[in-house]
Structures are given as structure tokens and as C-alpha cells.
Write a structure and sequence with these properties.
The longest helix has 17 residues, at about 70-85. The chain is globular and about 50 Å long. The chain has a single domain, classed as Alpha-Beta Barrel (TIM Barrel), CATH 3.20.20.140. Strand 4, helix 9 (about 175-185) and strand 5 form a beta-alpha-beta unit. The chain contains 17 helices and eight strands. It has helices spanning about 5, 25-30, 40-50, 55-65, 70-85, 110-120, 140-150, 155, 175-185, 200-210, 225-235, 240-245, 260-265, 275-280, 285-290, 300-305, 315-330, and strands at about 10-15, 90-95, 125-135, 160-165, 190-195, 215, 240, 270. The chain is of the alpha/beta class. Helix 5 (about 70-85) packs parallel to helix 6 and helix 16 packs antiparallel against helix 17. The relative contact order is 0.14. It binds zinc ion (ZN). Zinc ion binds near residues 14, 16, 193, 216 and 274.
């Protein structure tokens, strides 16, 4: 029986398109490229998504990206992602894609952006706008090239913002300051993964050097009370993905998860699933688990996500109305 967590209109701001491809669609993509001996069947594929730590998660991610090779693969994957979002009553999502992970297949960022948009537009029930993940590991020069390419199709593909994902622990934010400045000048909105695989210094760096408007994850901010105070005072939205942190070993349990410290401190917490296929999670389930800790308002956090979204004023107000109306009637 669906409950109100399933039925409520939901919003997620931190979703990797490649990590949200439903398992059956992913299986189809792997088969269409000749299969892989490490995953003889669908249940073996499901089991492959378990990680020792954050670097092991990145390795698994890299393996999976080997099966998204053509524009058509991206269109098929994006449509399946959007359908799955619609089924979950996720009415608005900001999905990122990571072009540099696929250039080895001969795909350009422009091709990827347009192919993804074609798939997303087949599902009008859910609005999905895109962020481009400039990816830390190949370095800032490569990020500049990717940004240039994406800017050529940003209106056609509805790319609204940038982030940097990848190995945060090895690649601090500061070297990406110039590319962030240029993205901002080009009208893109700014977020960055920070305070996930690295500590508070990474969050400070994203705020001070990159000028981000939101923080992707940010949970390790709790290691620096002055940073938590700053996040609260400035009401900086945090894209918190609790289950993701448990699966990659950033947090040890739901009981001890830093999201509680952040919420208790009054931080501007929004809730997302990050890579729901990789982490076997969903936004509804995140809220269901959070509700066990009392005083956690799903409506409030959904409205915080609407407010922190990259939508324009009119659409943002309409979406907030829709969410409030549902909760009034529930
Ligand atoms: Zn992420």
C-alpha cells in the first residue's frame, strides 16, 4: 500500500542521471553491448552495487559508465529515469550528467546533453532540468573544455547549473575557481559536491573559492561548528542524501547520521537520493526513515528544495503552491 511518503509531491535537487537508471533499463543496456561476465543475471547486477568505501563506489560507477556508449543509450536511459521519477511522484528534479566519463566512447558533451533532453521530454509528468558535472578527477582544464561544449547546447538541453563530483578527497575545490566564475558569468547556477568524501575545509573552499549557492551533501560540515553556524546564518541549502552516505561509508548509521545534527542546528536541509540505483534508495524512503526521528517535516524540507531550485520565480511559486495544497488536503 502506498503511504503519504509515496503519494506526496516530491522534489530532488541532487540526482545523478547515470546513477538513477532503473535496474532493468541498465540490464538492457549491458546486454545490448554484449553483456558482462561479472553480471550473468539481473540479481548479480543488483548485488554488484555494494561498496566497501567511497573509492570502491567510484570504481563501480566507472564500470557502469562503460555501458552508456551512444546517443540512443542516453535517450533511452533519460526517458527511463524520468518515467521512474514520475511513478514516484517526484514532480521536479535537477539531474546532473558527467560528460567526461563518456568521452572515451567518442561522445561529445553536446551530443549527451541533447540526447538526454530528448529522453526527458518524452515524460511531461515530471519536470527535469539538468546540471553538468564537470568532474574533479580530470582537472580544471578539462572542466573548462566541458563547460564550453555544454554552453553550446545549454538552452536546447535546459542545462541550468554546474557541479563538481568525483574524488573530492584527492581534488580540492580551489583549482576550479576560474571555471566556476566563467559558468556564473554565462548564467549558470552553482553547486558543488563538498563535505562528503572530504571534511569541512572542502565546504569552506566551495563557498569561498567557487561562490556556490548550494552544497552537494555537506554532511561533514558537522566536524566544524563554526561552519555549521555559517551555513545556518546564511541559510545555504544543503543537498543531503542520507542513504548514499551510509552506503559509501561517510556515515555509520541512521542514528548517528550528521543530518540530525544539521537539522537540529536549523540548517537549510533538502533531501535527495543521489544515485538511487547504486544505493538502492528513494526520496520517499529517505523521508520515511527521517520521520522516525521526530520533528522532521517532509513538507518543510520539500518546500526548502523548491525554494533552492534553479527554477524562475513564477515556476517556483507554482510548484510551492502545488506542494502546499497537497499537504493541506492530506
Ligand atoms: Zn552526488
Amino acid at each position: 500500500m502506498p503511504d503519504r511518503y509515496d503519494a506526496a509531491p516530491k522534489v530532488e535537487l541532487h540526482l545523478h542521471l547515470e546513477g538513477a537508471i532503473p535496474m532493468a533499463t541498465l540490464w538492457g543496456l549491458i546486454e545490448s553491448h554484449g553483456g558482462d561476465p561479472s553480471v550473468p543475471d539481473l540479481s548479480a547486477l543488483e548485488r554488484r552495487f555494494a561498496y566497501r568505501d567511497f573509492p570502491h563506489f567510484i570504481d563501480t560507477w566507472w564500470w557502469m559508465t562503460g555501458f552508456l556508449r551512444t546517443e540512443d543509450d542516453f535517450t533511452v536511459a533519460a526517458e527511463a529515469v524520468a518515467r521512474h521519477l514520475a511513478e514516484q511522484n517526484i514532480v521536479y528534479a535537477e539531474a546532473s550528467f558527467s560528460p567526461t566519463d563518456f568521452e572515451r566512447h567518442g561522445l561529445t558533451p553536446q551530443q549527451m546533453g541533447v540526447a538526454i533532453r530528448q529522453g526527458l521530454d518524452r515524460v511531461p509528468a515530471t519536470r527535469v532540468v539538468l546540471n553538468v558535472d564537470l568532474v574533479r578527477d580530470p582537472g580544471p582544464e578539462r572542466a573548462e573544455t566541458t563547460l564550453d561544449a555544454v554552453l553550446e547546447v545549454s538552452s536546447e538541453a535546459d542545462v541550468r547549473g554546474i557541479t563538481i563530483g568525483g574524488s573530492e578527497q584527492d581534488h580540492p575545490p580551489e583549482p576550479f575557481a576560474a571555471v566556476y566564475r566563467r559558468a556564473s558569468e554565462a548564467g549558470l547556477r552553482l553547486t558543488a559536491h563538498a563535505g562528503e568524501a572530504a571534511g569541512p575545509e572542502s565546504v569552506w573552499g566551495a563557498l569561498r573559492s567557487l561562490g556556490v549557492e548550494r552544497i552537494g551533501h555537506g554532511v561533514r560540515s558537522v566536524e566544524d561548528p563554526a561552519l555549521v553556524d555559517h551555513l545556518v546564518a546564511k541559510e545555504i541549502p544543503l543537498e543531503v542524501c542520507p542513504t548514499s552516505n551510509l552506503r559509501t561509508g561517510v556515515a555509520s548509521s541512521w542514528e548517528d547520521h550528521p543530518v540530525h545534527t544539521l537539522l537540529d542546528a536549523g540548517a537549510n536541509v533538502t533531501i535527495s537520493s543521489d544515485d538511487p540505483t547504486f544505493f538502492h534508495c528513494s526520496v520517499a524512503e529517505e523521508f520515511r526513515k527521517l520521520s522516525r526521528y521526530g520533528g522532521r517535516s517532509m513538507e518543510k524540507m520539500t518546500l526548502a528544495a523548491v525554494e533552492a531550485s534553479w527554477l524562475g520565480d513564477v515556476e517556483r511559486f507554482e510548484l510551492a503552491d502545488r506542494v502546499q495544497e497537497w499537504w493541506r488536503g492530506s
